[in-house]
Amino acid sequence: MSGMTTSSHPLQPLIVMHYNQFIYSRERRRFGRQCLFSDRTQLMFSINPNMKLRRNYILRNPVHTGTQLSDQKAFSMVETENVTYAEHGMYHYEGGWPKEVNINDEESTLRYRKKIEREDAWGQQVMTLIADTTAVIEQNNAVNIYQEFFIDLPDEICEQIKFDFESRQKNIFHDPYTPHRPISVIDWAPNDVKRFLVLHTNIPLNRLEAIERLKILKSKTIKVEGRLETTEGNNFYIWDLENPLKPMVDFTSTEIVRKTFFCPKDENWIAGGLHSGKVCLWDARTGGARICVCPLEAAHREATSALCWVHSKTNTEFYTGSLDGSVKYWDGRDMETPIQEILLDPVLTDSQSRPRSHGVTVLEFEYTIPVRFIIGSDMGSIFVGNRKGMTPSETLSAGNYRIFSGPIRTIERNPFFVKNFLITGDWCAKVWAEECKGSPTTLLIKKKNEIFCGTWSTVRCSLFVTGDAKGELDFWDLLLHQRQPIFTFKFSHAIVCAKFRPDGEYLAVALSNGDIQILEMDPALKHSTSKDKALIAAVIFIIIMITMFEREQLRCKLLDGRVEEIKLKRKSDVIEEKKSTFLKREDDIMNADDPEEFLRIITGDTEFKEALNTFQDQVYKVDKKRQEREYVMERTDFEADFEPSEMELKS
């Protein structure tokens, strides 16, 4: 291949092209002015300091400043899931035979053995197998596998050999809406363990956050029935446990939603309460807007603060409670009017008063006990409701108990012992026994920080967790310790809600900044032994007995105090009578030290007399039961052989 040369006008550049190079030429005068470099010192611009501006600043000493000239690269660490391996052995009695060989036919197996023995590699394989077998036999002979080691060690050494409990983070779910909203409800789907419902309440926690949110939502309002309502910021979602990037189902609302829960028997329905007091339903399969809502005249007067589904044939009935003190019973098929409405009046009467009613904060219902439901109030009281009651007095006839100073946050039954509750409020968490009427609190846990939530484990009957305002998630196990948590997991924000998955493997924790942390439980925390249930039943029984003994001691102290008050009162009466009447017989003077006089004094008090008669009746019943017992004396084999004679008995 030959080269090619091209010439042109003198003013144009010269281009020379060859097969392996390219030459471009141009006149010097077209290159521009030549650059001449030199070293010199010259002041281009000077700015004098301004003393007025200097007064606005202070001198900081020392100054720590970091610089980074290279490219900044993010560094992250990921913990992969642990893989558990297991070894399984197999016992071959006859060995491995091909499919075409019948192991029951002796001739076919003999022919196949001879065929294998004729192969050249058979001898080498046998020698290798003999070496491996010999090594295993020597190892077994060197160690006695049936010997018990370390049986002579003292027990004190093993007490300190223990592993700390731990919990690892699986996923983080952020609020898709900006600014982030606090969480009020986390509810796992009853039949699908990979789905859970998260309700973000568009209610700011403080005044500054309220002002910022108001500026953002000014341009996102529409007119509904003559009033402005926001179209964004009230959404709540159903998330997939494995996908924290996008929610599975998105639900919309034109009003602020306060409470939402799955129907335990039909997870396709979600009931919710609004900030305006209305009650509505959503379809979990399609999402979007609500499908039905109650009218304003049938709604609560204040925000709907509590909701719980109850047992029914149609699985469409539920209770709602509000801070106005009302509890309403609804049927999802007809939301025009509630089926029943009562007020949370602490005075047991049919003529209820709304001014003295307590606000409802929590509603709880257990499907295994379809008659009763529990109500928690903002005044720290527990009300036990009866679904069969037709009047308010019949519905709340089980009574109420004041166990907290502030509002009750959560009420949850133990899944294994349904008559025991975990109740959280103010700075305390209490285990409440329904059977113990006089003093329902059987276990008390106090903290310096305010406790916002609490929940029982669904697989371990003695385990429950509490979350407080400082972001400390405490794990309590009644079998291991009753006064301090066995494990604490700390977060950077306050914990407002926590809920175990139905299988107990994961724990969903809601933070005040709108994030949901999914924690994987330690193997020791998500498994239970066969003896745990019997042990925790014994622990609860012991705690109840201790509480009863303390109550009896308190009753005795009150009776003794009452007797002392009566003595002082009678003595003061005697002194007054002596001052008023100087001429009085000596027999008429009351002597409190006389036993007969003391007996006459205390029997004259009607309240003490009734209490004493009740106590004597109980003692009489106990003695009567003891007298009715039948004691059967059975003779042992030794006594039957050597039966005493009549003469010995007479002697």
From TrEMBL:
- One example of a Gene Ontology biological process annotation: outer dynein arm assembly
WD repeat windows: 297-331
Q: Which InterPro entries match?
A: Dynein_IC, WD40/YVTN_repeat-like_dom_sf, WD40_repeat_dom_sf, WD40_rpt
Query: In the record, what lineage is assigned to the organism producing the protein?
Result: Eukaryota, Metazoa, Ecdysozoa, Arthropoda, Hexapoda
Q: Give this protein's Gene Ontology molecular function annotations.
A: dynein heavy chain binding; dynein light chain binding
List localization entries. Answer: Cytoplasm, Cytoskeleton, Cilium axoneme
Q: Which family does it belong to?
A: Belongs to the dynein intermediate chain family.
Naming one, the record's GO cellular component terms include: outer dynein arm
Q: Which UniProt keywords apply?
A: Cell projection, Cilium, Cytoplasm, Cytoskeleton, Dynein, Microtubule, Motor protein, Repeat, WD repeat
Q: Which Gene3D superfamilies match?
A: YVTN repeat-like/Quinoprotein amine dehydrogenase
Q: Which SMART domains match?
A: WD40
For this entry, the protein name equals WD_REPEATS_REGION domain-containing protein
Q: Does the keyword 4Fe-4S apply?
A: no
